[in-house]
């Protein structure tokens, strides 16, 4: 039965200081779903240096907002927050609930509160005039209750294990993993998620070159890299500064998800993570993903916490070669970080409606899966190609053009690549578009205009190309997909063009048709190379 009105109206104030705290509240908000008795208000608690990003996130949410000074002048039935810091004591609430805004309490922030105590368990913030501020401490694991009892016994008497709604959304999204990977255009590639928390010991502060090391050091046909940045770090740097800092890596294929829901969907899609001491890695471990340790140490991580144990058990990230085969890495374990998986909204609904002195509506609220991520991505218009020819088999590895690895040739899209890349590429290719050229006309024009180009190729479809080689003339290439394990794996036709280009450089003559195997990552496509037909040469580009 649903209550949609009547004389039992209740006001709930959701108070936050940062974008990450707001995002957490938005994951909790569905506990009031379908209930017309609840009026929901949001207010920004002043005093955080991350409040600008929080305001931007709030604006995107479409929530009803009340200024903090106005909020202090009116009573609410429930104040709900995910951070104990700031002037919360000045808010008037008949009941007050405090939830964590991350996976546990693993860090000590030495510039505020009690320097050696876990942020979030510090009596300096949990007590008001010597008594607990919150009527409910909703925690994610029994271990957190024990630690709260150690550091702040009065608050622990009001602690209840309510699970983790963010983890529950990620678990609920498991069946959508293929859809997320499709939205990210991953295909069969391994997705590596690089996780950075915020502050002086974060990965982006200590090792800012690591994302570029991965992007430039791993083959683009086998790997994609996503950089997941803590909202506080985004707010401290600004979205523009962060994007500009990593513009070369973004141009080379780096993914930079938004810090609200996209990061979690990308983590569901990921195959492994590389992390500092931020607790986001615990979510990856709870999903069964391998975790590699890239934390260089410091004072913030508290010994004996779930995050400290996770990093102690994780293999060390030593460079791109250490993630070449993530299937050989053992899944991580975060059993000591999360309790009651799949139950968070039901447990929270029971506790919050108890504080509101209302009977919760029926039916039970479902856990919503994460939306399909919308992450800007760019296909690199030029790639550095390594090619190894062994008889009729050509193994191809392609890297962003800025790689420092030794290469066989540069392959570039015409005219999307830069002028310098077009002028220096040995292989130029083009897909149908404007219809201003025939295949024969464009390939002849390119070889005449660009002396460095040895092969000009028209990619007519996913399984057919026509190329003009400077010495060997006009050839057609037919691609047959790899069908290993009952799945269809298609090789990028531009990689097949590079394979044929490399093979032609080793063969002064051949009798057509010729069959070649093009090995790209773990898959192999059979290529049939023959003289191009008149209708193929007359096709429009």
Could you describe the 3D structure shown?
It is a single chain. The protein has about 550 residues and is of the alpha/beta class. About 30% of the residues lie in helices and about 25% in strands. The strands form 4 sheets. A 9-stranded mixed barrel has the order 13-14-20-21-19-18-17-16-15. A 6-stranded parallel beta sheet has the order 2-1-3-4-7-8, with helices on both faces. Helix 1 (about 20-30) runs parallel beside helix 2. The radius of gyration is 28 Å and the shape is elongated.
Short description:
By secondary structure, this protein is an alpha/beta fold.
Distinct helical segment count: 21
Q: Residue share in helices? A: 25-40%
Overall pLDDT metric = 92
Shape verdict: elongated
CA gyration radius, whole angstroms: 28 Å
Strand elements, count? 21
Strand order, largest beta sheet: 13-14-20-21-19-18-17-16-15
- Stretches with pLDDT under 50, minimum 5 residues: 1-5
- Specify the biggest β-sheet: 9 strands, mixed, barrel
What is the rounded distance between the termini?
A: 62 Å
Note the beta-strand portion.
15-25%
The secondary structure category is alpha/beta
């Amino acid at each position: 039965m649903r209550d949609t009105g009547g004389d039992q109206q209740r006001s709930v104030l959701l108070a936050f200081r940062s974008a990450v705290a707001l995002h957490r509240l938005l994951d909790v908000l569905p506990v009031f779903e379908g209930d017309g008795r609840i009026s929901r208000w949001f207010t920004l608690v002043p005093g955080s240096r991350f409040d600008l990003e929080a305001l931007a996130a709030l604006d995107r949410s479409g929530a009803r907002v009340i200024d903090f000074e106005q909020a202090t002048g009116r009573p609410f039935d429930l104040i709900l927050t995910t951070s104990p810091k700031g002037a919360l004591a000045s808010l008037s609430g008949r009941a007050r609930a405090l939830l964590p805004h991350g996976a546990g309490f693993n860090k000590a922030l030495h510039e505020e509160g009690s320097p050696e105590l876990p942020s979030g368990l510090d009596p300096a913030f949990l007590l008001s005039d010597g008594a607990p501020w919150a009527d409910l401490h909703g925690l994610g694991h029994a271990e957190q209750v024990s630690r709260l009892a150690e550091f702040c016994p009065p608050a622990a008497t009001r602690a209840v294990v309510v699970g983790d709604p963010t983890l529950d959304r990620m678990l609920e999204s498991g069946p959508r993993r293929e859809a997320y990977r499709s939205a990210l255009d991953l295909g069969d590639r391994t997705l590596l998620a690089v996780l950075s928390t915020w502050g002086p010991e974060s990965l982006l502060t200590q090792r800012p070159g690591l994302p570029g090391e991965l992007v430039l050091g791993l083959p683009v046909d086998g790997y994609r890299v996503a950089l997941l940045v803590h909202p506080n770090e985004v707010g401290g740097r600004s979205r523009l500064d962060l994007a500009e800092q990593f513009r070369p890596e973004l141009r080379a294929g780096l993914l930079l998800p938004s810090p609200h829901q996209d990061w979690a969907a990308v983590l569901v899609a990921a195959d492994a993570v590389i992390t500092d001491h931020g607790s986001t890695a615990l979510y990856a471990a709870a999903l069964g993903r391998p975790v590699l340790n890239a934390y260089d140490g410091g004072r913030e991580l508290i010994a004996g916490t779930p995050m400290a144990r996770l990093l102690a058990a994780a293999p060390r990230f030593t460079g791109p070669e250490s993630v070449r085969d993530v299937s050989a890495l053992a899944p991580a374990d975060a059993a000591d970080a999360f309790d009651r998986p799949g139950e968070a909204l039901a447990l929270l609904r029971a506790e919050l409606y108890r504080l509101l002195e209302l009977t919760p509506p029926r039916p039970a609220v479902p856990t919503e899966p994460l939306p399909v991520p919308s992450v800007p991505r760019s296909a690199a218009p030029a790639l550095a190609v390594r090619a190894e020819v062994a008889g009729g088999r050509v193994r191809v590895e392609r890297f962003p053009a800025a790689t420092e690895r030794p290469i066989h040739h540069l392959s570039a899209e015409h005219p999307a690549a830069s002028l310098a890349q077009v002028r220096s590429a040995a292989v130029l290719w083009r897909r149908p578009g404007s219809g201003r050229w025939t295949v024969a006309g464009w390939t002849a024009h390119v070889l005449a205009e660009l002396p460095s180009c040895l092969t000009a190729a028209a990619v007519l479809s996913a399984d057919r190309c026509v190329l003009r080689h400077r010495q060997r003339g006009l050839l057609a290439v037919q691609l047959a997909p790899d069908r290993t394990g009952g799945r269809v794996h298609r090789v990028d036709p531009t990689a097949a063009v590079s394979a044929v280009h490399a093979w032609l450089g080793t063969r002064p003559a051949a009798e057509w048709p010729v069959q070649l195997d093009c090995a790209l990552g773990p898959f192999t496509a059979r290529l049939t190379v023959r003289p191009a037909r008149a209708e193929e040469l007359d096709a429009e580009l």
